[in-house]
Amino acid sequence: MSGRTPARVCPVRTCVGCRERAAKDDLLRIVVIGSECVPDDRGTLPGRGAYVHPAVVCLDQAVRRRAFPRAFRAQGPLDTAGLRRHVEQTAQ
Ligand SMILES: [Zn+2]
């Protein structure tokens, strides 16, 4: 096969951390269960999703600017500790 790739339109989402657009496949989908942000690795969990690069820097930016409560229209703060741990593990 040559280096040519078929011109397929792939879905693009905006990272809530750095606000850059990226292919959906390159971003981690986040959903909220209860008051906790959880990673949706397979993209199968129902409900509203937010997208972030699977990188600690992007996650921290998102947390700092309260992007998750805004994205999920949450009334209170959201727990991102477990999500951060997940990103730390997968980013390496
Ligand atoms: Zn990002």
From TrEMBL:
Pfam families documented for this protein: YlxR
Name assigned to this protein: YlxR family protein
InterPro entries, A to Z: YlxR, YlxR-like_sf, YlxR_dom
Domain YlxR: 13-77
